[in-house]
Amino acid sequence: MAEPTAGAENAAAAGPGMPQLDFSTYTNQIFWLVVTLVAIYFVLTKVALPRIGGALEDRHEAIADDLEQAAELKRRAEQAEEAYNVALATARADAQKIAADTKAEIQTELDAATAKADAEIAAKAAESDAHIAEIRASAMESVEEVANDTAIAVVEALLPGAADKAAVKSAVADTLKG
């Protein structure tokens, strides 16, 4: 029990000590604490919090605008993709039509060229047939002449002076006709 008394005596001898622990100044400390808290409250409510709220509101609006722009850009991208697909389908259809038209045109030209070539071949074949017929007729005349001359010579050789040229030619002509 002697020690707390000695501690209090030491404290009293040391002076007032820490000012916030001095009971005689509590009223002033409480007053200034309240004034400080009120000042901080007014500074926060009138200056800092509106700025923070404004910044948060601005950020929220910016995010909302960005999301809206993103949605608009997405919608435009989808429309562009749809337009691209339509244009691609149209281009494919046009390409197929052009290919079909070109194929038909080439087929028409090919048919015309084939018909022209067939006509030329038929004309040359007819010409060749006519030429062959001329050659054949000429050959037949030559054969008939040779046959007549040979028959007359044979008859003259076998029966001198008895050869009737008209009768020999008639006999040779009958024999050649079959």
Report the sheet-strand fraction. Answer: under 5%
Q: SS-based structural class?
A: mainly alpha
The major beta sheet can be summarized as:
none
Tally of helical runs: 3
- Globular, elongated, flat, extended or rod-shaped: what is the shape? rod-shaped
Query: Residue-averaged pLDDT, rounded?
Result: 88
The overall strand count is 0
- List segments where confidence is low: pLDDT < 50 over at least 5 consecutive residues: none
How many discrete structural domains? 1
How would you spell out the order of helices and strands? HHH
**Roughly how many Å apart are the termini?**
176 Å
Tell me the helix content: over 70%
The gyration radius over C-alpha positions equals: 67 Å
Subcellular location: Cell membrane; Endomembrane system
Main location: membrane
Keywords: ATP synthesis, Cell membrane, CF(0), Coiled coil, Hydrogen ion transport, Ion transport, Membrane, Transmembrane, Transmembrane helix, Transport
GO molecular function: proton-transporting ATP synthase activity, rotational mechanism; proton-transporting ATPase activity, rotational mechanism
